[in-house]
What we know:
This protein has 278 residues and is α/β, with parallel strands linked by helices. The protein has 10 helices and 8 strands. It has helices spanning 24-36, 58-74, 86-94, 112-117, 144-162, 182-189, 191-195, 209-215, 224-240, 251-277, and strands spanning 3-9, 41-45, 78-82, 99-102, 122-126, 169-172, 200-203, 245-248. Strands 1-2-3-4-5-6-7-8 form an 8-stranded parallel barrel, surrounded by 6 helices.
Amino acid sequence: MTLIMGIVNVTPDSFSDGGRYADADTAVAHGLRLHAQGADILDVGGESTRPGAERVAPQVEQERVLPVVRALSQAGIVVSIDTMNASTAVAAVDAGARIVNDVSGGMADPEMLAAVASTDADVVLQHWRGHSADMYARAVYDDVVAEVSRELTARIEAAAAAGIGPARVIIDPGIGFGKQGDQNWETLSGLDRFVEMGQRVLIGTSRKRFLSDALAAEASDVHEARRDLATAVTSALAAQSGVWAVRVHDVAATRDALMVAERWAGQRQGDRTGSQEG
Ligand code: PMM
């Protein structure tokens, strides 16, 4: 069963929810709603990674996220902290977070892997080639899937060297990070190969630009509801590759899509077993 990670952005400038959840109480209420809709994990973030976004000082980030992490953890929900800062990661784990989600795979902050190793949290290592200001300049590949999996392997090894065993590591090929246009579709079409690497795999397509591009020539015309529907489809297809979790804004739509896809997959499994027996 693929898990759903619901997104709780506590940023004034996130591209996809326009900073609607910037206030801690509102963010907590939003998180509780996503949990009620079927989110297994809530991913709390206080720094936008949108293309060209400014970095946020760790202290500001912590003021945004820690009250939200604490409240949602106290409500008994599994919380992950979306941060590139080691100090935020440690403070969030102290506040109850069980997973550190670092979109830079431990590359942005040289202290990150050692900091995570000092906790008992799991870690998401996402494929990353540099901060959003210039990540598209680095989006040059001969073979996206081969290069992303090689670079992820290097991050798994770096984590192991820092004292984080592979059982604690989740990998994410990083849709939209250092990848443009068709490179995202190539990455998705290689999901089976990422799953074969033997780690849990997380995938985040939610409301990303490449989906809008697939729906219409003018990406800015594509309304949020259409991007959420497209996200539910990509998430259900990713589930068929055996990913561990999908990271989404619209939990309800993705929950429905996953339930239908899993019902179909279960039937297919039953048919196979039946034909073997018969
Ligand atoms: N995408 C965003 C932020 N954090 N974390 C992981 N592991 N994977 C992702 O694909 C990912 C992420 C950007 O999206 P948002 O600003 O809408 O949250």
